[in-house]
Amino acid sequence: MGLKGCAFFLPRLLLRGLENWLTSHLVFHGISYKALFVSFMVHLTDLLLRW
Which superkingdom heads the taxonomic lineage of this protein's source (predicted)? Predict the structure, then answer.
């Protein structure tokens, strides 16, 4: 992956990480861990397919 690819990919990865962090905090307000895990796996699969 070139430098351009990294420059495009990293901000998206950070954004996803922030989203996951916020979601994990919402878990304490009634969202189940299973739903979070499924959501995470979907995001991960989505990222891998875009490579």
Answer: Bacteria
| Selection from 43, 45, 35 nearest residue 17 by Cα | 43
Report the length, in residues, of the chain: 51
Q: Which residues contact 16 (CB under 8 A, 6 or more apart)?
A: 43, 47
Domain range list for the chain: 3-50
At residue 6, what is the residue type? C
Tokens of 23: 């979601």
Q: At what angle do helices 3-26 and 33-50 cross, to 10 degrees?
A: 170
Say what the pTM is.
0.36
